Each structure stands twice: as C-alpha cells, then as structure tokens.
Amino acid sequence: MDRLFQALADATRRDIVSRVLVAEYSVSGLAEQYAMSFAAVQKHVAVLERASLVTKEKRGREQIVRGRVDAVQRARRLLDEYEHIWRQRIDRIGDLLAEDASDQD
Amino acid sequence: MDRLFQALADATRRDIVSRVLVAEYSVSGLAEQYAMSFAAVQKHVAVLERASLVTKEKRGREQIVRGRVDAVQRARRLLDEYEHIWRQRIDRIGDLLAEDASDQD
DNA sequence: GTAACGTACAACCATATGGTTGTAGTTCAG
DNA sequence: CTGAACTACAACCATATGGTTGTACGTTAC
After folding, report:
1. A44 in contact with nucleic chain D (CB within 7 A)
2. Is A75 within 8 Å of A5 (Cβ atoms)?
3. Chain A residue with Cα closest to B92
4. pLDDT digits 0-9 by tens, A12-41
5. Who's near B88: CB < 8 A, 6+ residues apart?
6. Residue A55 sits in which domain range?
C-alpha cells in the first residue's frame, strides 16, 4: 500500500497511469509526452511498476507499458473502507440520538 | 492531490486516519498508540493536516484531531475516474469486436 | 556491417522525508 | 505559585526522491 499511494503521489506518474489505462505506450512514447529526460520518465515507470500500477512487456526493441486497473481498485477499496468506518460512526451517533429521544419519552 | 496521496503513503498515517475517522483523539492520545516519539506523531498529523485529511481544533491544552471524509472522497473519486477510463477502453474494444463480427456477416 | 533507436543503469546533485532530541510556550491541577 | 501535561518548533541525521548526464547493450533498418 505504501508503494501504491507513493506512486500515485506524483502528477507525472498519475498522468502516465491515466494514459496507459486508455492505450498502450512504449517507454519512449511516454517520454515524448513530458518535458523531462527519457531517464526520468523511465524512473517514473519503474516506480509505477514496483507499485503494480503498470506492467512492462518487451516487444522487439520496445517496452510496452500497460495500466493495471486491479491496483487502482486495491487503492480505491481502502478508501472505501475509510468512508465505511466513518459512516458507521455517523450511524452510531444517530443511534445515540435515537436513544436520547426514547429516554425522553 | 500530490499531498493527499503522499499523506496516505505511510502506514502510520493511514492508521491515524482510520482512527480519527472513528473517534476524536488528542495528539498525545494518538502518540500513545505508536512506538515512536511524540514529535514524530506530531509531524505525521501535520502532514495529514496539510493534505486536508484531518483537522485540528484546540480544546483547552489539548489539540483534538478529527478525520475529514471529504478528502478521502476526493482521492477515491480520482481512482474512480481511472477505473472509468479503463472501462471505456474495454467497451471500445468490445465495439471493435462487434464491428468485426458484423463485417463477417 | 553500421548507424540509429529504445532501453537499462550508474553516478551525481538538490531537496524531501521520517525519525530523533532538545527547548520553550500554554494550560491545568494542587 | 509551582509543577506537570500538552503542544509547537528547531536542529540534526540517515535515507529516499526526482531530476540530470553519461555509458553500455540489444534490436531494427538500410
């Protein structure tokens, strides 16, 4: 999870993710999109790969990068959990208020 | 967004978030929960605050920390978007296959 | 075969991060 | 008033991060 959120904590990497979820890109194809060196983009892709957010597959002399929606879903599920436990607290507070109301009967 | 995901990229901070979404904690109350110095926890809370994941409210000599579900939702919505654009690609591929099928008619 | 392309990786730099200890200011209790 | 509790913040350290340039290697095209 650390690596997953860490990988998402950079605008360039988030942009790469959104691109490779739509279509395939070679590493150099991605590098063309950004105003930084090829090596820098290569590092970003490596971070995304370690976080399981993308896969790389060799095709000829190119390395094809694809997005992995399952990793996105893993992160989303954790945030869903947070919303859930928050909602439970709200519900609990609602219950307490209901109890107070019945006390006053 | 950078700060949001950066804040979530640490297990201690995620644990703090899950706690303060359930109940209120003072900073020292949180610090008791972890095997690190008070100052370290204080820094984590500061990171979460800059990311809008928690709020601090002074109450007497204590500082009460509360979780902000809206920030969690902002992060979740971005991940939802990613899933959405991925699904669109899948749909597009489905459409292409359907076209191929009709070509063969 | 050779030149160009795509990639990998190391070395380097500046800055950020996660932790520590120490000092100091407020607030509460006795 | 004095001491203890809660917090803030600075200084410091080790390591990680995001960027660069340079070098080396496999692959493709001519």
Report:
1. yes
2. yes
3. A22
4. 999 999 999 999 999 999 999 999 999 999
5. A22
6. 2-103
